[in-house]
Specification:
The protein is of the alpha+beta class. It is 37% helix and 23% strand. The strands form 4 sheets. A 5-stranded antiparallel β-sheet has the order 8-3-5-4-12, with helices on both faces. A 3-stranded antiparallel β-sheet has the order 9-10-11. Strands 1-2 form a two-stranded antiparallel ribbon. A hairpin with a 5-residue loop joins β10 and β11. α1 (7-21) runs antiparallel to α2 (26-37), α3 runs antiparallel to α8 (229-240) and α5 packs across α6.
């Protein structure tokens, strides 16, 4: 039978050594403490008893931290159930706006400003297209979800956007989208680039290599429309509540390294196992701890 590992196994074994050469932020310290004490006696316990057979079971309390992979299952299902009532009976579109990796450094010292600028720039871009396209000319709605990671836990900041396929005009008339794609992605990318750089300047953030960023193409990806409400809810659950690493992906924890599975999109979506030095694994994981007060999911 294969071993099952928890993120706390990695932290308990390797975090003290990591802290000898890396300084944790106060937020990272709290998150690590939560993950290490989750479902242990340190957080207390509950005694459950069946009223019919009198079977008893002791259950340790969970930490409830949004970064803890052991605390996301129940919250995810509850959130999906709540969102089912909000899904409209229309097609949906899934768009992904990626931040150029040259701007990743801003997340290390000005994460709140960077992520706020990203949400604002993306939604201003989409709203502008909803108002200006001849076949729509109205107000869009949607859900935007911040992801900061790639499959190998490297820093890859992007927004997933789920957009109902239509707008409300000033006269409260619904105009539905007729095509299989919401907006042309090249035009979206051009406007998104301008609005993002403008938003960063408004936050008084130094933009590294700004001239080069203006001349390179920015990545906006659009998936074909989703026509079934159940598919929309599935996407909501997958992209809004899923953390950066499901613990089932952790395959090995040794004295020196951590092995975890990932999907290699550059190699025909093959499943592979990456072996990282334990300190590097922790460094990558902690890159994605959000500052207090930053909401990963925002509705517009």
């Amino acid at each position: 039978m294969a071993n099952s590992y928890h993120l706390s196994d990695v932290f308990n074994r390797h975090l003290p050594k990591y802290q000898q050469s890396h300084k944790l932020t106060s937020r990272q310290t709290v998150v690590c403490e939560h993950i290490q004490t989750c479902r242990t006696q340190a957080l207390g316990e509950q005694q459950w008893r069946c009223g019919q057979c009198q079977y008893e079971q002791r259950v340790f309390c969970s930490c409830g931290d949004r970064h803890c992979p052991r605390c996301q299952g129940k919250q995810t299902q509850a959130w999906i159930t709540k969102q089912q009532a909000e899904v409209l009976s229309c097609r949906y579109f899934h768009l992904v706006f990626t931040l150029p990796h040259e701007l990743n450094i801003l997340a290390h010292y000005a994460a709140k400003k960077l992520y706020s600028a990203l949400f604002a720039a993306v939604w201003q871009t989409l709203s502008q297209f909803g108002m200006s396209r001849k076949h729509l000319q109205g107000q869009l709605g949607g859900t935007a979800v911040l992801h900061t990671w790639g499959q190998n836990l490297s820093q890859h900041i992007h927004l997933h956007c789920l957009i109902p396929g239509g707008v409300l005009t000033a006269q409260d008339i619904w105009h539905g989208v007729q095509s299989d794609y919401l907006f042309p992605v090249k035009a979206l990318a051009t406007v998104y680039r301008a609005k993002m750089l403008q938003a960063l300047r408004a936050c008084e953030l130094d933009v590294p290599e700004s001239d080069m960023l203006m001349n390179k193409p920015w990545c906006v990806y659009s998936k074909a429309c989703l026509s079934r409400a159940t598919t929309v809810v599935k996407y909501l659950g997958r992209y809004t509540r899923k953390g950066m690493l499901h613990e089932s992906r952790i395959k090995a924890v040794t004295a020196e390294s951590v092995g975890f599975s990932y999907t290699d999109y550059a190699d025909s979506n093959k499943r592979k196992v990456m072996q990282l030095d334990a300190e590097e694994f922790i460094r990558r994981y902690l890159l994605h701890v959000l500052p207090k007060g930053v909401m990963r999911v925002r509705h517009f």
